[in-house]
Design goal:
The complex is a heterodimer of chains A (about 70) and B (about 350).
Chain A (H helix, E strand, L loop, with lengths): L7 E4 L5 E4 L19 E3 L14 H12 L1
Antiparallel strand pairs in A: 1-2, 2-3
Chain B lengths: L8 H12 L6 H14 L7 H12 L16 H21 L10 H14 L5 H7 L3 H15 L4 H4 L7 H14 L9 H11 L15 H14 L5 H13 L2 H13 L4 H32 L4 H27 L24
Helix pairs in contact in B: 1-2, 1-3, 2-4, 3-4, 3-11, 5-12, 5-14, 6-13, 7-10, 9-14, 10-14, 11-15, 12-14, 12-15, 13-14
Classes of the chains: A alpha+beta (about 70), B mainly alpha (about 350).
């Protein structure tokens, strides 16, 4: 690619970080994290079973919080 | 797909006429039969004859039907028959699905409302049953029922792309590109589903099991084509996609657990695993950018976005209820049991 797309991070309310554009996703040692799609959703609730990616668990946590209220 | 077996006068007239290819004479009879059936049906969503006829009429726009000339796709009289059945289906849905069109929606508030609709849905949970209880035979029936959509997954929503502009179009293209594997051969979601079917010893060709599929399941697929093929319903197809994405990641995690519990390996579960990650991305884009972007550009479409969303939940609830009721009663959820002769031998319980 001759020009890089600007990277955009959408902070989804009560949801993940949606990352789109040109970026590298690396672990603590700088090694690439396996990635199978251009735009990714990164877990922000800590509950995902496929971290660093979102698996929708934040919705279950929200439902549990609502039920507990 | 192979020509299905008729289920009543409408599908019989249609499926006899199409392969003969000289069916002009049969068309008045077909139109009359469809008119009578649409007027007389107790519930068009559960009407095997009308739903199969509609499914076949739509299939002319997708993969076609073996032995049927593709020119029938745009035959004016067939389109009239289709419109007659569609009108009955659409009014049935509009009667059943309450839609309020809230004012002053922003893209984020549209997403919030759609997520809330999905969260509040208390329809029967096929995924919980699959995860914990389903037998290998029921799990196969589940895959067969899904196959009438999943083997053409994403296609009904793709019809909307030329009818959208701006942010909504970008969002739809971004989601659909991922559905079609991001350009990587073999990664199209429909192909991953075909792999799942093969791993279960099932025939992955489109429509192989259409004769087994009950009307209500056909109705849920037909509704996507109804919304997708008409510009006037572009709001509904966008709302439908948003709800599909929002009700996907967690159930797919459960389906994957169910098939692992039954001893199947990655070749069967990959499709479901992929959807856990993919649809957690898609649901964010579909709510805010697709549905929200569409309403921001054309607020008059808000009511149809929510109509499409609620229709998706409603039909999924009815189709899920059909399956769970049948299984709870010890019956097959299919119209006819799977033909063992058509299945390839597979060792159930063997992990690969």
């Amino acid at each position: 690619m001759t020009s890089k797309e600007p990277t955009e991070i959408v902070v989804c309310p009560d949801g993940p970080l949606l990352v789109r554009g040109d970026f590298d996703l690396v672990d603590g040692d700088g090694a690439a994290v396996a990635r199978s799609r251009e735009t990714v959703a990164l877990c922000r609730c800590g509950g995902s079973g496929i971290k660093p990616y979102c698996d929708g668990t934040h919705k279950l946590l929200a439902a549990r919080r609502k039920a507990a209220q | 797909m192979k020509l299905p077996h008729p289920r009543g006068p409408v599908s019989e007239t249609l499926l006899n006429a199409l392969p003969r290819n000289d069916a002009a004479d049969a068309l008045p009879e077909l139109l009359a039969a469809a008119g009578d059936a649409a007027a007389a049906t107790e519930d068009v969503l559960y009407d095997d004859d009308l739903q199969l006829a509609l499914f076949c009429l739509y299939e002319l726009h997708y993969g076609g039907i073996d032995g049927v000339d593709d020119r029938w796709e745009w035959d004016v009289q067939l389109l009239q028959v289709r419109a007659l059945i569609e009108q009955r289906v659409e009014s049935r849905l509009r009667e059943s699905v309450a839609v309020s069109a809230p004012e002053k929606l922003t893209p984020q508030s549209v997403a919030d409302r759609l997520f809330a609709l999905a969260a509040d849905d208390d329809g029967p949970s096929v995924s919980a049953f699959l995860a914990r209880e389903a037998t290998p035979e029921q799990a196969k029936e589940f895959v067969v029922l899904r196959s009438v959509y999943q083997l053409k997954e994403a296609d009904p929503h793709t019809w909307a792309i030329p009818r959208l502009r701006g942010r909504a179009k970008s969002a739809m293209v971004e989601i659909q590109a991922d559905e079609y594997g991001g350009g990587k051969p073999g990664r199209i979601h429909a192909e991953l589903f075909a792999n799942t079917m093969q791993g279960l010893g099932l025939d992955p060709s489109f429509g192989a099991y259409v004769d087994c599929i009950p009307a209500i399941t056909l109705a849920s697929v037909n509704t996507m084509s109804l919304f997708g093929l008409q510009r006037r319903l572009r709001g509904a197809i966008c709302g439908h996609l948003a709800i599909y994405e929002m009700t996907s990641s967690i159930p797919n995690g459960k389906y994957a657990r169910g098939f692992r519990r039954l001893g199947f390996g990655d070749e069967v579960t990959e499709y479901f695993d992929e959807h856990v990650e993919a649809d957690s991305v898609h649901e964010q884009i579909a709510g805010r950018d697709l549905a929200g972007g569409l309403i921001a550009e054309d607020p008059a479409l808000a009511a149809d976005v929510f109509f499409g969303a609620r229709s998706a939940l409603y039909l999924d609830g009815l189709a899920g209820g059909w399956q769970l009721d049948a299984w709870a009663a010890g019956r097959s959820a299919l119209r006819q049991p799977l033909d063992p002769g058509r299945e390839v031998a597979v060792a159930v319980g063997a992990s690969v």
